[in-house]
Amino acid sequence: MPEIKRRITQAEAIREALAQAMEEDERVIVIGEGVPDPKGIFGTTTGLQQRFGKSRVFDSPLSENGITGICVGAAISGMRPVMVHQRIDFALLAMDQIVNNAAKWHYMFAGQVKVPMVIRVIVGRGWGPGPQHAQSLQALFAHIPGLKVVMPTSGYDAKGMLLAAIRDDNPVIFIEHRWLQGIADHVPEAPYAVPLDQALICRPGKQASLVAFSYMTVEARLAAEALADQGIDLEVIDARSVRPLDMRTIVESVRRTGTLIVADTAWKTGGIAGEVIAGVAETAFSALKRPPLRICLPDIPVPTSPHLTRDYYPDALYLARAIAAHLGGGVDDAELARRLVRATPHDVPQREFRGPF
Amino acid sequence: MMFTLYRSMLRIRRVEEAIAERYGAQEMRCPVHLSIGQEAVAVGVCAALEPRDGVFGGHRAHAHYLAKGGDLTAMLAEIYGLENGCCRGVGGSMHIIDLAAGFLGAVPIVGATVPLAVGAAWAARLRNEDKVIAVFFGDGTFEEGVVHESINFAVLHKLPVLFVCENNLYACYTRLSDRQPDRPIHGIAAAHGCRAVTAEGNDVEAVYAATRAAVASLRAGGAPVFLECPTYRWREHCGPNLDDHLGYRPGGELAEWESACPVSRLASVLSSSPEGAGLVAAAEAEIAAEIASAFTAALAGPEPQPADLSGYLYA
Ligand SMILES: Cc1ncc(C[n+]2csc(CCOP(=O)(O)OP(=O)(O)O)c2C)c(N)n1
Ligand SMILES: [Mg+2]
Question: Is the whole model's pTM more than 0.90, yes or no?
């Protein structure tokens, strides 16, 4: 009998993955500022402490670097900690432990000790989080050998990749996006794993390969659908992992389409979009029919005012216009706008959203 | 003096209430952390400082900014994200500054401004300026390593810093007892070598007196002072609403602290004389008029221009 397709939000999918990981392995513990509180990290940890007890699910003092090191210490001593930060920006306080210890402990002792831990971090967006609460720092982590870095988009992948990350024997930076948490998706109930190193072609197409990261995959798919109706056939690839990048899937796609476009949630300079382009240029330069295109954030910190963020984040309409122009134009711009102008304010993910987050 | 303290607290209370009241219109599109219930700490400390002294805050900084003399219209405009805001819309409620008033900046990464306060005090020392720097932070922020590194350096160099810990018992929805062992916060500061004192955080006169003594000692070259003030946040951690229904506060706790309201406490003392009662009533009307016109002036500001942003990136 086919499974009845269950739809749950990404936040629920993550909570389910955490619960199942704790069920299948008693070494898994969960810790973070606010984990057992009434808000439960945007609903991703709600009820876990009631279910698994105070010896496995912990709140945390405001001590990001210390707790990260404590989790590294627990990880090398037989536990499998899952940490969470409500904003990726808070993990910056823990960069020393993440980069100097977690990423290197296995390597610098010649493989004698493993560091099986997951650090969940959430990229903020919308309703004025501003310069210190809405950074998209995947490239910072992806620069570090010894870390695995993933950015699932769908609820299905969020669950499967979180389970894979917790089962993995290495430190995994698991990057979520605030605007993905409320999106519902088909998510099977039984535990399953999604590999941490494979991109997903979520829309096959012939004319250009559009590689997107995290929330940009949502905008990329909308743009691709609108462009398809005007005869532009894009292949949309959800990168899913940032380190390692699945260059095989991307290069194979570019060999078919001849055009590479990368849409990232982060700044352009030094970002992962440039890394994707470099990888393609190194291995498939002759397949490129035109220069690659990066669609990223402008190289300035996230401002707060809605008047200043209105044009800060590239959306589906921006993507569609930029891609159409890159491919030579000839689209009906009014029709694109009709299809893609958002009905909701630009700084909230969906209509029922209310501040302050 | 008592009346000045009262007026300053009342003004902050009414500003925060006005923000809360208008927040639902969805025009202040940034997170707000209101100070309602905690006004006495901000006012008692800042009243004992001179205009030339400096103050830093954190995510919950409206009261500190206003108590130090920060421009009300510029703060409101900032929350509305307009060009006449104190950061031209770049910052919003969680990033406020008024250099003319000696409010040297507030940002929402917890603990972030504590070392900056020490650095500002260090610079004042190196430049032979007669200046005290105060920094406000919460009980939760005290758990950050950088706070302890900063206190250590300040004590080592005997810098003119006043560390003000507003202990409101919670960090977001997590109670102090779930984050720290049962020992006084100020005891740790004393062990660092600070002159550690406490003052009843809902008693503005007590905070003022403690700060006056602290500032005198700092100006005389004494050790950094750590002032811990027990107080209480009435509304939700972030946002305009009450949140008692969430169940993270023990039953009756909020009501108990509301009955120890720092503003009405002083109002009833002042109102015991007919003259005082007249002043209290007049203050209410004056403040209401000031706030109404500040909102009008704030909202009259133009929208900030994205093209200006890159100009702020490098000096
Ligand atoms: C480094 C960092 N970690 C976590 C947060 C999220 N956060 C914002 S306010 C807050 C609680 C702060 O508690 P406290 O210092 O007691 O101040 P209060 O809110 O009670 O005034 C937390 C955890 C943050 N902003 N920065
Ligand atoms: Mg607190």
Answer: yes
